[in-house]
Amino acid sequence: MGQFTESNDLLGDAAGLRKRLNEDGYLFVRELLPREEVLDLRRQILEFCREAGWLIEGSDLMAGLTDHAPLLEGDEEWQPVYAKLQALEAFHRLKLNADVHQLMEGLFQEPVLALPMTIARIAFPNDNERGTQPHQDWLYVGGSTETISCWGALGDVPERVGGLKLLKGSHKAGFLKPVPAMGPGGQTVAVDPELEWVQSDYRAGDLLMFKALTIHSAADNHTADTLRLSIDFRYTGQSHSITDKWLEPHFSWLGEPFSWDTLDRGWRDSPTARYWEKLPKLKIKEHEMLHAE
Predict the structure, then answer these.
(1) What is the pTM of this model?
(2) DSSP string, 12-76
(3) Which residue(s) pair with 122 in the sheet?
(4) Domains along the chain?
(5) Predicted confidence (pLDDT) per residue in 168-207, tens digit
(6) Using CA atoms, how far apart are residues 266 and 260, in angstroms rounded to an integer?
């Protein structure tokens, strides 16, 4: 497996970043997000995990060590922890970082929108068979195919812990029809064996950005006791279309615990709350996802 090409050398060179993104299908920038802010968010999430009994008793909180049986997103035991996480203003604020926003404006060459839905993953070890399979984000996000996904580790994630990996140049094949698969999303796509998978270790503050049609997947967690925490969010140009689903919180389909009225109750006066409602009229369409056959 190859290593990510780091693009810190192109910061401030919007044309160079656009060229690399269009060629490789991704950009990887070290320390784009403020490390201390990322680590503080990690601490808050791990405190929720400790309260739920997911961490090894007496272990260092920030190490995220667990002896709990793997949980799937949506499990009854998982839901209260995730609702607390989604109610953190700091969690939703991270995607609005000024350096990320500026980089995105250079890529889109216009004012941009950070899609309101922000996703966290709390991935347990010893659960590789149910990991995220190779897929394209556009299937789930809809709207503009130029939307850019951003994935950041909430903490240092060496390769053995298994961060995100992606298939370099795979966006050039266009949209691929999915087939059923195990794991989150329940679908996968065929992988071109001629293309190269790339992955690197992640440090808190690093950000991987990739096109909506770039194939990516979760790498296996080869540890026996380490949780992997991550955040993912998306940006698009304000002239591009978005889908109504992505104006809602993640897991809003579960009802009240995951509604904006519940989640932002404690920080409604913050600039983070409902920021998209203050923007010019957005191009919103209904989300119609193609299901695997």
Answers:
(1) 0.96
(2) T-HHHHHHHHHHHSEEEETT-S-HHHHHHHHHHHHHHHHHTT-BPTTS-GGGTBB-SPP--TT-T
(3) 229
(4) 8-285 (2.60.120.620)
(5) 999 999 999 999 887 777 889 999 999 999 999 999 999 9
(6) 11
